[in-house]
Amino acid sequence: MTDDEFETEFTKTSSKGQIVIPSKIRKKLNIGSGSLLAITAQDDLIILKKVSSNISSKDMMTLKLIEEAWEDIDKGKYKVRSKNEFFKEFREW
To answer: Around Cβ 69, how many Cβ atoms within 10 Å?
Structure first.
């Protein structure tokens, strides 16, 4: 698997609304107990981003870009991309 590819994993919510991040993804992103994650959602899409406890300006820019992307989608401005193109661009954010 190359950096341009991604693995899809599935998880379920608990009765308390909690989710488990699959171990392959936790290991890949070095997510452990107490790791800080930013979350955003629109319609049925949820995005999690690992961030440090001191949110960097790069992380803030990423969150701002996601917010702007939601606005563009709401306005009908968007590009159709393949899964690999989407995740390649998402990683570059």
So the answer is: 17
